Amino acid sequence: MFSVLSQIRKRYEYMTPVEQRIADFMLDNPAKVINMPVKDIARNSDTSDAAIVRFSKRIGLAGIKELKVELAKELHTLEKENISRVIDLEHDTHKDIFDKVFKNTIQALYNTEKIVDRDTMKKAAQLFAKSDNTFIFGLGDSANIGNELEQKLHRVNINAFFTSDKYLCMTRLSNATKNDVLFLITLSGKTKEVVEVVKLAKKLGVKTIILTQNHASIAKRNADIAIEITEEETNIQYMNMTSRIAQLVICDVLFFYICRELGSSAYETIIKTYDVTH
Prior knowledge:
The protein contains 14 helices and five strands. The chain has 278 residues and is of the alpha/beta class. The protein has two domains: 4-81, Winged helix-like DNA-binding domain superfamily/Winged helix DNA-binding domain (Arc Repressor Mutant, subunit A, Orthogonal Bundle); 114-276, Rossmann fold (3-Layer(aba) Sandwich). Helix 9 packs parallel to helix 13 (241-262).
């Protein structure tokens, strides 16, 4: 189930005044929106039919028809389950915790599937496949994802170099060529280290790809290609659990996209590596 209401709340502060009027009406009247014609939604939010369609796409959906379908599913699920997504370690039973962790994770993956741009991922994979060197930078939990991606890329003979050290990454960028690529993995895209690295890459003309859940971050605005994952409304996010899994899945998909770009040579290398390790 794609959470329409969650996506609206998370993006609200970055919306234009017109988008905020639409958001306000939908957040205040979600049940009414489901059955309202586009013209009525536009009239009640003092906007236009075209603005409603653009708004739907702004939160990761194809149009207002899909928004209504997803919103109806969301309201039905909320009414049926009536369960908070927040984990309360003092009062939740073991079953409650188990159910919430799984449901929140599934929700994060479903939302990410909806908002991620496949064409953008394809372009990113093409850059990876054509690069002489790929520099991967990630901090905290994102570092684990970056380190794993480095190992996968080595299996298909891509020169990948991961680090969570800002200075080492900046040194590598200083010696980079026009055929090298920087891949940033970050949740907020706002940390000082990430911003400094992406700005240096831009200054040096190094192509930059960023994987982030913050669609309005400084890092994203300075990147050449941005892959966005969802940001969830749950206290699990403070442990980065749902975001980490979403990052991992996107990197797995990206890896297979890269393999497809490389063609048969990549498949043969993977098979040989598997035979050696097993």
